[in-house]
Design brief:
- This protein has 613 residues and is of the alpha+beta class.
- The chain contains eight helices and 30 strands.
- It has a 17-stranded antiparallel sheet that branches.
- A hairpin with a 6-residue loop joins strand 21 and strand 22.
- Helix 3 packs across helix 5.
- It is globular and about 100 Å long.
- The relative contact order is 0.06.
């Protein structure tokens, strides 16, 4: 039973107490609220079924939404016959009897022009009968590799939505084989009330195998038609594929320039079994600006901002400028001074086929880290191949100049760099993942010029997530990081290619880059190898608030691989997450477990947006 709170009813009674009966009667149909109760009962007292029927009922919705119009309430009650019947079919009940009484009168018997002046109660009574099962469940003919729902089988509950899903799966299978106009043929659904079974046969009409026909472009933006088609990569003449239709839209949306990218199929088949298509595109607002902030007690405040133009040269090029100031107002002198970064990138989509983008980039930065002071600049170009939504590969070529002050003295390095970057991202959410994995590997050869030495840096970052429980409210997350410098000695390697440990990106609870090597000559420096592991247990307490427990470890070594002379540290802590619209707000409190330096003990605090990894 659903009872409206009495407070509003009492106030309404007081309001009408001074009016004549005629005035009340005249006003009620046009706006006065009259419905106090909606009672819904099933003969089997099945709570799950009752909840399902309640969700389908417009009468219940009218009560909850405080609908005031009597005509709307009567219309809702009449519509509930069909809606509740449909909900019964969805649960496999095909012999149900439904009665809906409005103040004791069957809703179906209330004449349209004899609307009551008031309504106080609606009673919905449902005799659901027995739940039907499939005696036969057939979809034919099926395309190769078509997978039907497992619930569409003899002996399973005969839910109507399962029948619809089976028909849709059959049509989808033929469309994936190029039969774009596949549809339903004859259908036979026979109910046997005596034994409560459903004999179901769905015949499909695959139609001819089609190819992509002529594309009509409706361009509502300023990007030239030629560039739109280059980016779209429409496969005219190839066998029809729904996946390829989606890829055309994805490529245009991925460019970032277009707000609308819609591909529609023609109603009729074209010449030579081809299927004409229409592509509609429109531009986004060209400019975008954004900013971000993070804080930790050791690394201070990090501020970042970006500005993007999505159609910089008129051909859907993206030009972006990014800046960052880090280590502001750090409370720990061991973390070094303030760091600065400014970089630009111009990206042009579809430079060599629709799935290869080209970029020009430049950056300057200054880093005052614990182990060294650095100024460097980089210019270069790159090509990015997008294999699918999850897998990308980027290959670059650039020139890099860097200047350092450290225990080895003041040094200049000049290098040609050839970074190769592979990213495989299967996560369900970039900022709050609950399943699958993320993998990024990077190999960056640095070729010395003007007396600098030649070597390479190899890094890898693997993250995995396993969610369980209702709606994956519990998540186990793990991370493994590796790094190695090949071909150069520590003294001949730019310090930013070497590895340190400690801080929010490696081992929480320790100061930034607090783990380093001390060589035989007393020089303090980074290592040529690194291995780090992190483990987190995440749990949602409410829909918005979660808690996290974590443990991090990190090791660095003097050689290209970890050996007996490696150094290690570990840290652990707890955190709180508050879900926002753009990702969880993160607050972590960590403490060093092992490997702490004399001035590196005590609790550390980290604040940011998104999970730690």
């Amino acid at each position: 039973m659903f009872q409206r709170r009495q407070k509003s009813k009492t106030i309404r009674h007081r309001f009408f107490s001074g009016l004549s009966a005629f005035a009340v009667a005249a006003m009620l149909p046009f706006g006065a609220f009259a419905l106090d109760q909606v009672i819904l009962r099933t003969s089997g007292n099945d709570e799950d079924l009752t909840a399902s029927l309640r969700g389908a009922s417009l009468s219940v919705a009218a009560l909850e939404n405080e609908t005031d119009n009597i005509q709307d309430i009567i219309s809702a009650a009449r519509a509930d016959y069909g809606r509740i019947l449909g909900a019964l079919y969805t649960e496999g009940y095909y012999a149900g009897v439904i009665s809906i009484k409005v103040d004791g009168r069957e809703a179906a018997d209330i004449a349209p022009f004899a609307t009551p002046k008031s309504i106080s109660r609606i009673d919905i009574s449902v005799e659901q009968g027995r739940q039907f099962t499939f005696s036969r469940a057939v979809v034919q003919p099926l395309a190769k590799d078509t997978s039907l729902p497992s619930a569409f089988a003899a002996g399973e509950i005969a839910k109507s939505n399962v029948i619809s899903s089976a028909a849709s799966a059959g049509i989808k299978g033929w469309r994936e084989q190029g039969h774009a106009k596949a549809g339903l043929g004859a259908q036979s659904v026979k109910a046997n009330n005596a034994n409560g079974t459903l004999n179901t046969q769905i015949d499909l009409a695959p139609g001819p195998k089609l190819t992509f026909g002529t594309l009509t472009l409706e361009n509502r933006g300023v990007v030239p038609d030629e560039r739109v088609l280059q980016i779209a990569g429409y496969p005219e003449g190839e066998v029809f594929s729904p996946e390829e239709v989606n890829e055309v839209s994805k490529r245009l949306r991925r460019a970032g320039t277009f707000s609308v990218a819609t591909v529609t199929e023609a109603e009729n088949i074209g010449p030579n079994d081809s299927l004409p298509m229409t592509l509609i595109v429109d531009d986004q607002l060209p400019r975008r600006i954004g900013y971000g902030a993070e804080y930790s007690t050791t690394e201070g405040i990090t501020l970042s901002a970006f500005w993007i133009h999505r159609n910089f040269l008129g051909g859907a090029e993206t030009f972006e400028v990014r800046g960052e100031i880090a280590n502001i107002a750090s409370s720990d002198a061991a973390t070094g001074g303030t760091d600065y970064f400014l970089g630009t990138r111009l990206t042009r989509p579809a430079i060599y086929g629709p799935d290869t983008n080209g970029s020009l980039f430049a950056a300057i930065e200054q880093n005052d880290d614990p182990g060294y002071f650095e100024r460097k600049g980089l210019v270069g170009l790159s090509a990015t191949r997008i294999f699918n939504d999850d897998l990308t590969f980027e290959l670059g070529l650039g020139f890099r100049y860097s200047y350092y002050e450290d225990d080895f003295g003041e040094r200049d390095f000049y290098h040609l760099v050839v970074p190769a970057d592979l990213t495989w991202d299967k996560r369900d959410d970039e900022y709050n993942p609950t399943r699958d994995f993320y993998l990024r590997t990077r190999l960056e050869p640095f070729i010395g010029v003007a007396g600098s030495k030649t070597g390479a840096q190899l890094t890898g970052d693997l993250r995995g997530y396993y969610g369980f429980g209702e709606d994956r409210r519990f998540v186990l997350a793990g991370r493994a990081q590796i790094g190695s410098v090949l071909g150069t000695s520590i003294a001949d390697t730019p310090p930013d290619y070497l590895f340190f440990s400690g801080g929010s990106g490696t081992v929480r609870g320790h100061s930034y880059q607090s783990l380093f090597l001390t060589l035989d000559n007393g020089f303090e420096t980074g290592g040529k190898s690194f291995v780090g592991f992190s483990l987190e247990a995440r749990s949602l307490i409410t829909e918005s608030i979660g808690v996290v427990g974590f443990y991090d470890v990190g090791y660095i070594g003097e050689e290209s691989y970890l050996g007996s002379n490696s150094e290690g540290q570990s840290g652990a802590g707890i955190g709180v997450r508050y879900n926002t619209g753009i990702g969880p707000l993160r607050l972590d409190v960590a403490y060093p477990v092992s490997g702490a330096q004399p001035d590196d003990d005590g609790i550390k605090l980290y604040i940011g947006i998104g999970q730690a990894f």
